[in-house]
Amino acid sequence: MKFFLPIIILLSSFAGVNAQKKAVFNGWEFLEWGTDRAQVQKIINGKKLRYPNALDAAFRYNENLNTWLDYDSLKRLNRVKQRITFGIHEQKQAGEAYEKIRARMFSDYGIPRMEMRDTTENNTHTYWNLNHTKIHLEYDYQYKIIDEFGAGSYWVEIVFEKAD
Fold first, then answer.
1. Burial 98-132 (b: 16+ CB within 10 A, else e)
2. What predicted TM-score, i.e. pTM, was given to this entire model?
3. How far apart are CA 65 and CA 82, in angstroms?
4. What pLDDT score does 151 carry?
5. Is 89 helix (H, G, I), strand (E, B) or coil?
6. Considering only CA atoms, which of 10, 21, 8 is closest in space to residue 108?
7. Do 119 and 108 touch, CB atoms closer than 8 A?
8. C-alpha to C-alpha distance for 145 and 143, rounded to whole angstroms
9. What is the tens place of the pLDDT at every residue in 50-77?
10. Closest by Cα among 101, 99, 44 to 69
11. CB of 81 within 8 A of CB of 52?
């Protein structure tokens, strides 16, 4: 036990440092808030990720989450939305994905400001207020019939937004 205690302390302190670094970053992942659309495209292409061609097209990032980039009226990045959806028979997979994403979020950003579980609506909301970014993690596990457009019955969604 004496041997493992220093390792446990070292690992937990590393997780705290990682959360502190992410908490003070002025943006999302590797993109800073206020970066213009052309520069965002260069950065994404430089990371060998496929940049979306259409305004509403998504690329996949982190646990295969569809990722949408939103810009203000001056075409500067100010919001990122990520979502993964699951079909009507994939409630177990949705729950597992949520737990994995939630654990990563806690590791990356530390303890949230607030976490609420609404058992009537079958969803969970978790909020972080960082130095430059507001984050909302939602897990919707309420049974829904899939519509003709293929919308998922369950989803995990993260919205990163530039703090005012």
1. beebbeebbebbbebeeeeeeeeeebbbbebebee
2. 0.80
3. 6
4. 61
5. coil
6. 21
7. no
8. 7
9. 776 655 566 778 778 889 999 999 999 9
10. 44
11. no
The count of structural domains within the chain is 1
Token representation of residue 3: 């041997």
- Show the tokens assigned to 97: 């994905």
Tokens of 18: 């990682």
Distance CA 107, CA 14 (A): 10
Extract the tokens encoding 30. 């590797």
> Which structural domain, as residue segments, surrounds residue 127?
4-162
Residue 3, amino acid: F
Helix axes 4-24, 91-109, angle to 10 degrees: 90
Q: Hey, what amino acid is at 53? A: N
pLDDT for the residue numbered 20: 67
Nearest Cα residue to 28 out of 140, 136, 118, 124: 136
What pLDDT is recorded for position 12?
Answer: 47
Which range, of 10-24, 76-90, 97-111, averages the lowest pLDDT? 10-24
pLDDT digits (tens, 9 = 90+) for 112-154: 999 999 988 889 999 999 999 999 999 998 877 665 455 668 8
